[in-house]
Amino acid sequence: GTARQRRPRTPHPATPNRTQDGWFKRNYIVEAAQMASWGAMLALGIKLATTADWKYKLLSVLPIAIANSYAGWLAHDYVHGTDKFCNFFRNFGAVTAGLSTTMWCDKHNMHHAKTNEVGIDEDLPGGPALFVWPPTPENDKPWRKFQHLYLPLAYSLLFVVWRIDSLKVAWSRKIRHEQFCLAAHYALALAILPAPVFAGAVLLSGFMSATIVTVSHQNEDLMFEHEHDYVKNQFEATRDCRTSNPFSEWLWGGMQYQLEHHLMPTMPRYKYPALVPLVQKFAKENNIEYRASNELQLLKDNYMLYVDVARAPADPRARESASGLTI
Fold this sequence. Notes:
Blueprint: H1 28-49, H2 54-80, H3 84-88, H4 92-97, H5 101-113, H6 147-156, H7 158-172, H8 176-192, H9 195-214, H10 230-237, E1 240-242, H11 246-251, H12 258-263, H13 272-285, E2 292-294, H14 295-311
Parallel strand pairs: 1-2
Helix pairs in contact: 1-2, 2-9, 5-7, 6-9, 7-8
């Protein structure tokens, strides 16, 4: 028979002399500064939470929630990393945020491999709580028409769901070191923080993190067929965020450079700002759209997606979600 022709794929935007130039080398001063910023935010929250004044206890929810989200960004970087430093901190997320590394890898690796592929990427909510595309009549829910109204509540449950999944994975698979880390997390958190403060921080942190991680993908191209061109897939399914101030740049934890992260997932996140011009140059040379918007535009576009899907009729040809409940 005749040999099947393969269509040319988009070249990978490899950085020049990436290992020699230190693109993947850890800067331990920066690592220490990031860890210190997380510790300072957490310490502020603990200080406020342990005072007698209820107003300070209530206020403490905000810094503790921010610290919890930032712990997630640090853990995300350590799980992706392949060096000895990251190996040492591999279970940082379990100790500081109650998130199992194994659970996260199971879910997150597929997201990177098949970004925005409907029916496979678990980061795309296809019900029963939220929908980013109209479902089939059989899978539709009567409350979908109100999803844009309860969106903040659904987002706030992100870490609740992930924490429950973490406990399930660690105990069902008998992963002893993760069990120990998760037990240490809850023992320390509940010994130091009042239970209402801890619960409120988990919910607020879930809302913040869900908002940040969803806006980079959900409003971009959904892949209803498998895209074999990995680089093309990432450009079409991902949008960067142009942060407007230093605090926002810190709070987003590297998620504002979502495209760069998907193209170079093992690169330390603080190297991404220098990588952006190279990715933009690559996109221009290969006639690919580089997508980026500011925070407010991203938030608006993502919210309007939920509004539009809430108002859309059910689609008999729609695919099912990869999981029953994402967030």
